Amino acid sequence: MRAEPRGVLLVAATFDARGGLQRRLDGMAALAARHGAATVLTWRRGLRWSRERRPDGVEVIRLPALAGWERDHAPALAFANAAFSVAVGTAAALALRRRWHVAFGGGLNPEGVVAATAARLLGRPFLLRTWLPGSFGNVARLDRSPLAPALRRLLHGATAVVTETPEMGEEVVAAGFDPRRIVLQDVGVSLGRFTPVDAAARQAARRELGLDGDGVVVYCGRFDLRQKRLDLLLEAWQRAELTGWRLVLVGSGPDRTAVERRAAGVDGVVLRDWQEDVVPYLAAADAAVLPTRVEGNAGGVLEALSCGLPMVVSATPMYRRLAPPGTILAGGVDDWVAALRSLAGDRALRARLGKAGRAWIERRHDSDEAAGRLVALLGLEDAVRPAR
Questions:
Q1: 7-188+367-377 and 199-364 share one fold
Q2: Helix axes 20-34, 367-377, angle to 10 degrees
Q3: Is the pLDDT of residue 23 over 90?
Q4: Helix/strand/coil percent split, the chain, to 5
Q5: Quick check: 131 and 38 in contact, CB under 8 A?
Q6: What band does 386 get if pLDDT is binned at 50, 70 and 90?
Q7: In this predicted structure, what is the pLDDT of residue 147?
Q8: Of the ranges 29-43, 149-163, 257-271, which one carries the lowest mean pLDDT score?
Q9: Is 298 helix (H, G, I), strand (E, B) or coil?
Q10: Mean pLDDT throughout 364-378?
């Protein structure tokens, strides 16, 4: 008797975007592919679709959409885009039913709606994930839909809702989800890949990247001013007047041109394109930063701390509630100026914070442990690859 196919259908609205969330979703897909089949459904603006099979076995299907999912749109366009995306996504999920036994929505709307609809029609389990709280987070986007009450009833049947922080868990419970189905899943970091380096290796990394100066502060992430406060960071950097230091902004996004214009008049700022591998930039840095309006459990913070870098991080509600060791929380521009000056002027402080951050990562965010919990959650322990 042939074993039933085992695999995961991962529905992700912005799988091809560049940022910490996308790296986590990509890692999840690769993990699922090692234990069975992994199929990703995502969308891109336009009326064409494509299908790609990656070397790691992940199959990525890009579906047409009326508009991109990186930003919210006017109500009429947002509703039409969601309706079209859900219809196309559900049809694709049903057509691919031989490749998956469990659906995973990498968000609530449209990702979770597609996962839930297809899974319910086939009598299969589905899981949801929330990764961003607040006014433009996952629950807020769901609630902006005119069909929100009906969509909530659909999503409430999820086997589990995976959240990254207690704050997000509370937000999901307030939205009517069963608290017994909320699973707090720590984000994992590869401790062997993201690891501290000594002074000689740091200098070598700087030479390789063409970064001169007395010190380097790095930001790796999206250039999206709606969420990431790069405008605040640049103002603080200008006011801090850290002679001989470099602020390296590594990334891409919808507001890259605006960031380039703002950075052009600030001494010591270096812009670099998005890097699939940020380890060389973290190895070259003395400290890292995350300016943001709202955040979940940012992968960029965890990777920098794992590399033994002290950080300045925006004092969002989540970070005020559970500030990771190794970080300095900053609110307004004055706080950022003071924090940047403190780190630049105190080598012992940098070393102390870096050591504390690395120790915390080792205790809480080992990727091997996180991967094991995720495999169990998806029911992939005894998975076999389906027949082609």
A1: yes
A2: 60
A3: no
A4: 45, 20, 35
A5: no
A6: very low
A7: 93
A8: 29-43
A9: coil
A10: 77
Give the pLDDT confidence score for residue 106 in this predicted structure: 92
CA 237 to chain centre: 25
The domain covering 7-188+367-377 belongs, at the CATH homologous superfamily level, to Glycogen Phosphorylase B; (3.40.50.2000)
Q: How many CB atoms lie within 10 A of CB 143?
A: 14
Sheet with 287-290: strands ordered across: 269-272, 245-252, 215-222, 287-290, 311-314, 327-330
Burial class (CB in 10 A: 0-12, 13-18, 19+), 142: buried
Pair of tokens at residue 323: 């500030």
**Predicted confidence (pLDDT) per residue in 188-211, tens digit:** 788 899 999 999 999 999 999 999
What whole-number distance in Å separates Cα of residue 255 and Cα of residue 253? Answer: 6
Query: How is domain 199-364 classified at the CATH fold level?
Result: Rossmann fold (3.40.50)
* Euclidean distance between CA atoms 235 and 262, whole angstroms: 9
Taking alpha carbons only, the member of 91, 279, 111 closest to residue 195 is 279
Q: Provide the sign of the torsion angle of the four alpha carbons 65, 31, 380, 298, taken in this order.
A: negative
- Considering only CA atoms, give the Rg of the chain: 21
Q: Are strands 102-105 and 59-65 parallel, antiparallel or unpaired?
A: unpaired
Is pLDDT of 143 > 80?
yes
- Sequence-distant (6+) residues with CB within 8 A of 375 are 31, 35, 381
pTM: predicted TM-score of the whole model, two decimal places: 0.85
- The predicted model gives 369-381 an average pLDDT of 75
Residues 6+ apart with CB under 8 A from 13: 42, 43, 69, 85, 106, 107, 110, 111
Residue that is written with structure tokens 């609809």 in the block: 117
* Mean of per-residue pLDDT scores for the chain: 90
What whole-number distance in Å separates Cα of residue 98 and Cα of residue 93? 10
Peptide bond into 280 cis (omega under 30): no
Q: Are strands 50-53 and 59-65 parallel, antiparallel or unpaired?
A: antiparallel
Contact at 8 Å (CB) between 216 and 237?
A: no
Each domain of the chain, given as residue ranges in start order, spans 7-188+367-377, 199-364
Over the stretch 46-90, which tens digit does the pLDDT of each residue have?
A: 989 999 999 999 999 999 999 988 777 888 998 999 999 999 999
Whether 308 contacts 354, CB under 8 Å: yes
| pLDDT > 90 in the chain, percent | 67
Prior bond of 110 cis (ω within 30°): yes
